[in-house]
C-alpha cells in the first residue's frame, strides 16, 4: 500500500507533501505511545547515523571512490543553546531525493492504518517486527523538536536535498546548494521545544551518548558551541568486542565503573563470546561491594542488552533475579526486537542467551571457589544471601547452587563450610544433613535444640537468612543425604553415641521411682498445657537445658511458620511440641514434689515460657509469667 500525497509547489523547486488523514494520529502514537523515555530519540538518531556509515563502508568495498578524501567515518553532535538547536551529522552513505522521501516516508509507504495495527499488536505483546525502517526511530525526534530539518547528500552525488517537517502531517523537500550540505552524508537539525532545551547542555548530551550509544562502531564527537573545536566523546570501539588478552585489568575496572555506577573494583570478571546456533558476546562483573539496590523489592537484574553495539534496554532480565548483583551487558545481532527497541520480544533466542549467560556466571563462580577460596569467601559474605534465593527459585540449577553455597555451622563460626565439607566430616551412619533456622546467628548458637547434636559431635548448619526457611523445605538431597531440621519432629540421635560422657552420667543410677515421677510429671504437664502445646514428651536432643519447643512431624518448621504468619500468609499457627530433659536437675526436683501441686503448676508454665524465650518468642502471658516467677523466688528465699 502506498500513501496518497498531493504536491503543492511553493516555488519552482520546493515540493510539499501532505500525508493522508491518519498520519497525524500515527505520529501522535509514535511520540506518546511507542517510547516511554524521551532520551531515546538521540539513541535512535545516532544509531541511524552509525548505520549510514556502515552502509558506506560496505559500498566502498566495491567502489572506493565513494570515500573521497575522508575515508574515516564519524558522527558529529553540535549544540546551539542560543538557537535552541541540536544537530546530528554523519559522513555516511547519505540519501538522494528519492531515498529521502522513501526513507522518511516509511511509515506512510508501509500503509498507515496497517502500521498502526502493528504498533497496537506490539503493545499487546505480539512483538511486531519493525526494526530496519528508518522512519520509526527518526520520528521519535518529534518528542523533543517542533521542527526537524534533514539535509542529505548521497555519496558520489552532485546534488543535496532538504527534507523538513513539523511532524503534524506534512513535509517538504527542496534542493539545497552544495555549500550548505555536508560533503556526503546527512545532517539532522532539531529545532527543540522549550521544554526540551536541556538537550543543548553538553553534560546532558554527553551523558546520554555514553550511556546509550557509547559503543557504536563509529567515533562520536561533540561540538559544545558553534565555532569551537569538537571533542571526541566515544572512540568507536567496544571493549567487549576485543579479545580478553587485549584488555587490561584496569580497562575492565574502568568499564565496570561506567556500567555499574560504582567505584569499587570488580571481584570477578566474566567475558566470553558464544558461537554456534546463537552468537552473542557477554561481559559481566561481580562487584566487590554490595550495590545500594541489592535488596530492591523488584529484585530485577541489571544486565544491559545491546544489539549490534547499540544500547536497547536494561530491563531484559538477562539473568535470574538471584544474580541481580551482576553488572554488565550482552551484545547480540540475533535477537528480534519490536518497534521501539525498548521492549524486547520473548523468543527462543532470548531464552538461549539467558541460559548461556547464567551457566557461564555460575561456572565462573565455581572456578573461583575452587582456585581462590579466600576470594570466594569474600564473595559469599557479600552476596550469599542473594545467591541462595536461587535454591528456592531455580529448580534446574539447584544442585549446582547447593555446591556453591557456604554455611556457618556448629563446627565453624565463618560462612566457609560447603556441603561437600559437611558430608566429608559426617558420621558414617549419618543419613541426613541437619540444619537449624532462626532470625539471628546468636540466637541459633544459643538454641537448646543443638545440645544433643553437639554432645555427639554432629555438625548442624546454622541458617539465619530469611530465604533459608523456604529453600530447605524443597531442597533435594545432596549426595544422597536429605535435609532435616533439628527443631522439627523426633530426632534419631539415639543411634549416635555421645563423644563425651560426664562422670555424673557414668555413676548416676536413676531409680525406678524417679522415672515414674518424671513420667507422671510429663503427663501432668501435658494436661496443664493442652491449650498451648500439641504434646509434651521426653527429649533426647537436650543435654543442658530443661526444655525446648519443636515443630510436629508434619507441617511447617517453627521459623518458617513464624515468617509466614508475620507476612499474613497463615490464618492460624500450629501448636508446638514441648520436649523436656528428663535428666535435668530441675525436672527431677519438680517431678518429686508431688505433694506441692501449686509449685508444680507454676513450674510447668514457667518451663513452657522459658522454652518460648529460648525460641525467640515472648511468654504467652507476661504478667502471669512475672507472678509465677515471683512466687518461685519467694519460696526459694524462704527455704
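^ C-alpha cells above, recovered residues below v
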Amino acid at each position: 500500500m502506498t500513501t496518497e500525497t498531493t504536491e503543492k509547489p511553493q516555488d519552482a523547486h520546493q515540493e510539499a507533501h501532505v500525508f493522508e488523514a491518519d498520519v497525524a494520529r500515527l505520529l501522535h502514537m509514535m511520540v506518546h505511545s511507542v517510547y516511554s523515555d524521551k532520551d531515546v530519540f538521540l539513541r535512535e538518531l545516532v544509531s541511524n547515523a552509525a548505520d549510514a556509515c556502515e552502509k558506506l563502508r560496505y559500498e566502498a568495498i566495491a567502489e572506493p571512490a565513494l570515500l573521497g578524501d575522508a575515508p574515516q567515518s564519524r558522527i558529529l553532535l553540535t549544540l546551539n543553546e542560543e538557537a535552541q538547536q541540536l544537530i546530528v551529522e554523519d559522513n555516511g552513505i547519505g540519501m538522494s531525493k528519492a531515498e529521502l522521501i522513501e526513507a522518511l516516508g516509511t511509515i506512510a509507504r508501509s500503509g498507515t492504518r496497517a502500521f498502526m495495527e502493528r504498533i497496537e499488536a506490539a503493545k499487546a505483546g505480539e512483538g511486531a517486527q519493525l526494526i530496519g525502517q528508518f522512519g520509526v526511530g527518526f520520528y521519535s525526534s518529534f518528542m523533543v523538536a517542533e521542527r526537524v530539518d534533514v539535509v542529505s547528500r548521497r555519496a558520489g552525488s552532485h546534488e543535496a536535498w532538504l527534507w523538513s517537517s513539523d511532524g503534524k502531517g506534512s513535509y517538504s523537500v527542496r534542493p539545497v546548494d552544495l555549500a550548505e550540505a555536508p560533503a556526503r552524508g546527512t545532517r539532522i537539525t532539531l529545532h527543540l521545544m522549550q521544554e526540551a532545551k536541556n538537550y543543548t547542555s553538553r553534560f546532558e548530551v554527553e551523558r546520554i551518548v555514553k550511556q546509550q550509544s557509547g559503543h557504536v562502531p563509529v567515533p562520536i564527537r561533540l561540538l559544545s558551541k558553534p565555532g569551537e573545536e569538537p571533542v571526541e566523546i566515544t572512540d568507536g570501539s567496544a571493549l567487549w568486542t576485543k579479545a580478553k588478552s587485549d584488555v587490561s585489568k584496569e580497562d575492565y575496572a574502568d568499564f565496570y565503573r561506567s556500567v555499574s555506577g560504582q567505584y569499587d573494583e570488580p571481584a570477578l570478571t566474566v567475558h566470553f563470546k558464544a558461537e554456534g546456533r546463537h552468537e552473542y558476546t557477554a561481559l559481566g562483573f561481580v562487584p566487590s561491594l554490595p550495590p545500594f539496590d541489592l535488596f530492591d523489592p523488584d529484585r530485577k537484574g541489571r544486565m544491559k542488552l545491546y544489539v549490534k553495539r547499540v544500547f536497547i534496554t536494561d530491563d531484559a532480565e538477562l539473568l535470574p533475579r538471584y544474580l541481580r548483583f551482576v553488572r554488565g551487558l550482552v551484545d547480540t545481532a540475533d535477537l528480534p526486537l519490536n518497534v521501539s527497541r525498548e521492549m524486547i520480544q520473548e523468543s527462543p533466542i532470548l531464552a538461549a542467551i539467558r541460559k548461556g549467560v547464567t551457566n557461564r556466571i555460575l561456572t565462573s563462580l565455581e572456578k573461583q571457589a575452587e582456585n581462590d577460596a579466600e576470594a570466594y569467601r569474600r564473595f559469599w559474605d557479600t552476596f550469599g544471601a542473594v545467591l541462595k534465593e536461587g535454591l528456592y527459585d531455580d529448580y534446574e540449577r539447584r544442585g549446582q547452587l547447593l555446591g556453591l553455597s557456604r554455611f556457618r555451622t556448629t563446627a565453624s563460626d565463618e560462612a566457609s563450610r560447603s556441603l561437600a565439607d559437611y558430608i566429608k566430616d559426617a558420621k558414617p551412619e549419618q543419613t541426613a544433613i541437619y540444619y537449624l533456622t532462626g532470625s539471628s546467628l546468636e540466637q541459633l548458637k544459643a538454641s537448646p535444640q543443638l545440645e544433643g547434636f553437639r554432645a555427639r559431635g554432629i555438625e548442624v548448619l546454622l541458617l539465619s537468612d530469611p530465604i533459608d526457611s523456604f529453600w530447605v523445605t524443597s531442597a533435594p538431597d545432596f549426595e544422597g543425604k536429605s535435609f532435616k531440621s533439628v527443631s522439627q519432629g523426633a530426632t534419631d540421635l539415639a543411634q549416635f553415641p555421645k563423644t563425651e560422657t560426664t562422670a555424673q552420667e557414668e555413676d548416676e543410677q536413676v531409680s525406678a521411682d524417679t522415672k515414674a515421677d518424671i513420667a507422671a510429671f510429663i503427663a501432668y504437664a501435658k494436661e496443664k498445657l493442652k491449650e498451648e502445646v500439641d504434646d509434651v514428651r521426653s527429649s533426647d536432643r537436650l543435654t543442658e537445658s530443661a526444655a525446648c519447643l519443636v515443630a510436629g512431624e508434619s507441617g511447617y518448621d517453627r521459623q518458617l511458620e513464624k515468617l509466614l504468619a508475620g507476612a499474613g500468609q497463615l490464618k492460624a499457627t500450629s501448636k508446638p511440641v514441648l520436649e523436656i530433659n528428663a535428666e535435668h536437675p530441675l525436672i527431677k526436683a519438680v517431678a518429686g514434689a508431688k505433694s506441692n501441686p501449686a509449685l508444680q503448676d507454676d513450674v510447668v508454665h514457667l518451663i513452657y515460657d522459658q522454652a518460648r524465650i529460648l525460641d525467640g518468642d515472648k511468654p504467652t502471658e507476661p504478667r502471669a509469667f512475672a507472678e509465677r516467677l515471683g512466687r518461685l523466688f519467694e519460696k526459694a528465699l524462704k527455704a
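Residues 16 and 172 are 4 Å apart (CA to CA).
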